[in-house]
Design a protein that fits this description.
45% of the residues lie in helices and 15% in strands. It is α/β, with parallel strands linked by helices. The chain has a domain at 94-113 and 228-432: Rossmann fold (3-Layer(aba) Sandwich), CATH 3.40.50. Strand 6 (161-168), helix 7 (174-181) and strand 7 form a beta-alpha-beta unit. Helix 3 (54-62) crosses helix 4, helix 5 (115-133) packs across helix 10 (227-243) and helix 16 (366-380) crosses helix 17 (386-394). The model has no long low-confidence stretch (mean pLDDT 95). Bound molecules: pyridoxal-5'-phosphate. Pyridoxal-5'-phosphate binds next to helix 11.
């Protein structure tokens, strides 16, 4: 289809084609892959999206990023299969709640968080390539909750891939865990590590740094920085804008951890979509809010909040924005080394200025998250999860400035039911599916917090 290639933000890895970028997480130079140019859509094309389905829009967007390793019909088939088991016909319905406030519900996939939108597609795409090559892989990843479930759900029927997901033992919500551990499939392996999420990630990093081991076991990483995830998420910004009655002067408010979801919106803008502004909504882990205020990007310790999927200090995809704004991989390299060595970097005033042309950022306290969940329920009979509450609350002071505010609703409230029930004193929003999952048998292996026990487990399972 196209002649697009993918370059590393740090400039010293080889360019990749689409098919290879799907299987590569991190570039060998430590950078993230990004297309060498942004495909543009003209205004007539974008206008025509208002009469297209989500799947049709997805095809129009994704086809611009793939190459001839995938035919048009193959792409259409993968899109159609990826979104056939969502529980809403619109896939990501745009809900008008009141005044100029909208919610883009991204949680209608099988594991109730927006991660399904990319994972359903990527698992089938990888399965397609593997089948063509008659190749098998073993997928390895760590999760703090939502990504692992979406990945397991996506890959459970892909016969050419086994999947191993590490999560921190007793440190994720019951519903998050059960979404992973109740799946019946011989190719799925859940490993609970006696340690923290950081410990899980360190084990994965160490295993992947052993190149011989990685090759001998056909290991592929599944993580939050894969380009294909961003690509899939661009689609719903086009979808949302096509459904707004008048989309001029619209702000998107995005609960942000790793900066992947909001970066996808920025890419949509680069492709020609007329989005006025993005609000980087943060909880008390406010590193990006501080960065936009001061230009100083300084790491602090992670705080545990009611919105755990955005309890993050290292916001990996921010690197992609820095690269896109500067097109200077040496500059990006220097910043990332400073962050690693000194836990802080300073942005040049000119770069901060460019970031502020597309982004604002506001952080939300735990108290205000709870107040919002309660207010939205009492005033509008709307039940939102804590991440969505961060997104909504974070843009409250901006409502006069924009014609429309679209908050990305990133998880179903039932996924965080203990927090939500505690606030609204009612569990009617908990679906039958969640009740069923809670009662199902679980399958997982609890392992010590060390590399060799995980390697031993993999050796006996592949
Ligand atoms: C992953 C996640 C986020 C954060 O998305 P990023 O792309 O990491 O910024 C927000 N909300 C929920 C529910 C998530 O699972």
């Amino acid at each position: 289809m196209n002649n697009i290639s993918y370059v590393s933000t740090r400039g010293s890895s080889d360019k990749l084609n689409f098919r290879d970028v799907v299987f590569e997480g991190l570039a060998t130079d430590g950078g993230l892959y990004i297309p060498d140019k942004w495909p543009k859509l003209d205004i007539h094309k974008i206008d025509s999206f208002s009469s297209m389905s989500y799947q049709e829009i997805a095809y129009e967007i994704i086809k611009l990023y793939v190459d001839d390793s995938l035919s048009k019909d193959e792409l259409k088939k993968i899109i159609s299969e990826s979104y056939c088991n969502f529980d809403h016909d619109d896939i990501t319905p745009l809900i008008h709640s009141h005044d100029n406030q909208y919610f883009l519900e991204l949680y209608h996939g099988p594991t109730y968080a927006f991660k399904d939108i990319a994972m359903q597609f990527i698992s089938r795409l990888m399965g397609h390539y593997l089948e063509n090559d008659n190749r098998n892989i073993n997928i390895l990843g760590a999760t703090s909750g939502d990504t692992g479930a979406a990945a397991i759900e996506g890959f459970k029927n892909i016969t050419s891939a086994k999947i191993f997901i590490l999560h921190p033992h007793n440190k994720i919500s019951e519903v998050q865990r059960k979404f992973m551990t109740t799946i019946e499939s011989n190719s799925v392996h859940n490993i609970a590590i006696k340690g923290s999420f950081d410990d899980c990630q360190n084990i994965i990093k160490k295993i992947f740094s052993d190149t011989n081991y990685k090759i001998s076991k056909n290991l592929t990483a599944i993580n939050s920085i894969n380009w294909a995830r961003i690509m899939c998420q661009i689609v719903y910004y086009f979808y949302a804008m096509s459904r707004l009655p008048n989309n001029k002067n619209t702000l998107f408010s995005v609960p942000t951890g790793n900066f992947g979801d909001i970066f996808a919106g920025y890419v949509a803008k680069k492709m020609g979509l007329d989005i006025k502004m993005f609000n980087i909504a943060t909880n008390e882990n406010d590193i990006l809010t501080r960065t936009l205020q001061t230009g100083i990007h300084a790491l602090k310790n992670v705080k545990e909040t009611s919105s755990p999927s955005i309890d993050i200090q290292i916001s990996s995809n921010f690197e992609r924005l820095l690269y896109d704004i500067t097109k200077d991989s040496e500059y990006v390299n220097n910043l990332m080394h400073e962050l690693k060595n000194k836990k802080v970097y300073n942005l040049d005033e000119s770069i901060l200025h460019k970031i502020r042309q597309s982004f604002v950022s506001n952080s939300v306290s735990e108290t205000n998250v709870r107040t919002t969940i309660s207010n939205l329920y009492n005033s509008y009979n709307l039940v939102v999860d804590p991440h969505t509450a961060v997104g909504y609350t974070s843009s409250i002071d901006l409502r006069e400035t924009y014609n429309n505010i679209v908050t990305l609703s990133t998880a179903h409230p039932a996924k965080f039911k203990d927090t939500v029930v505690d606030i609204i004193n009612n569990d009617n929003f908990v679906t039958k599916k969640i009740h069923d999952i809670i009662n199902r048998d679980e399958k997982m292996t609890i392992l010590e917090n060390d590399v060799s026990s995980v390697q031993k487990f993999i050796n006996t399972s592949v």
